[in-house]
Design goal:
Bound molecules: S-adenosyl-L-homocysteine
Shape: elongated
Helix content: 25-40%
Largest sheet: 5 strands, parallel
Radius of gyration: 21 Å
Structural class: alpha/beta
Order of helices and strands: EHEEEHEHEHEHEEHH
CATH architecture of the largest domain: 3-Layer(aba) Sandwich
């Protein structure tokens, strides 16, 4: 079973994304184990201090090296990890290729930053991979970690009921997914494309490919040149 360990200063922020839908199902099915680690439990100071002012001055606190170091060490004593990932905006942006790769890798440690970020020495010496979820800044790494986990977990074989369904999502072939419809086929004179009701699987496949291509060309032409 794949293990994902998430290190956070505010682990309560992680709870809800993992408490329903596909991620919960994957945990319940024992396909993946996801553990939250509260940095405060790894501080050796009496006050459970985990952040401090930055050297050189300037506003904003920085998560200290020691609690993160202690937590990583604690985890590595019991298990082997393929990657130690730090969620951070100043990193390559997450894409489906990365999620595919991480879905078949071994155990993962994910570090969530807070405030101004984490002490650079953790990044330089212990982090093996840095991931951003987009060109904008959030207050903490918890939502980014949940985004990363969701994108990974749904790709692990056995998690989605219909195993092919992840393969037909956007980005798997550098192309966006075609439009989808469900019942009723007619609603207030808004009709579902007739081809989808034709039962002709070959025709449907061609129509979907065409729609995917048109959509990608219009919205994300950059994908087509990949
Ligand atoms: N001072 C940093 C931003 C810190 S934001 C900078 O300017 O680069 C606080 C924390 O939120 C970060 O440590 C990181 O863990 C998380 N975070 C914020 N935006 C993110 C993004 N786009 N992708 C991944 N993590 C992000």
């Amino acid at each position: 079973m794949k293990k994902i360990e998430i290190i956070s200063a505010t682990p309560q922020l992680l709870e809800s994304p993992f408490s329903g839908s596909i991620m919960k199902r994957a945990v319940d099915k024992k396909i993946v184990q996801i553990n939250f680690h509260d940095l405060k439990n790894f501080s050796s100071s009496k006050k459970k201090q985990i952040d401090d002012y930055q050297f050189g001055g300037g506003s904003g606190m920085v998560l200290m090296i020691e609690p993160i170091f202690n937590c990583i060490n604690f985890l590595k004593k019991n298990d082997k990890y393929s990657e130690v990932i730090y969620m951070t905006p100043d990193a390559p942006i997450l894409d489906q290729k990365t999620s595919n790769k991480l879905s078949i890798s071994g155990n993962l440690i994910i570090i969530c930053g807070h405030y101004k970020g984490i002490d650079q020495r953790i990044r330089d010496n212990f982090v093996t991979m840095e991931i951003s979820i987009g060109d904008y800044v959030l207050s903490g790494g918890e939502l980014p970690a949940a985004v990363l986990c969701d994108s990974i977990v749904r790709l692990i074989p056995g998690v989605l009921n219909d195993e092919t369904s992840a393969l037909t999502d956007s980005f798997q072939d550098n192309i966006l997914a075609p439009p989808v419809y469900t019942r009723p086929s007619s609603f207030n004179e808004m009709e579902v494309p007739a081809v989808l009701l034709s039962g002709d699987q070959k025709k449907i496949e061609n129509w979907r490919e065409k729609k995917s291509f048109e959509k990608t060309k219009k919205i994300r032409p950059d994908l087509l040149s990949k």
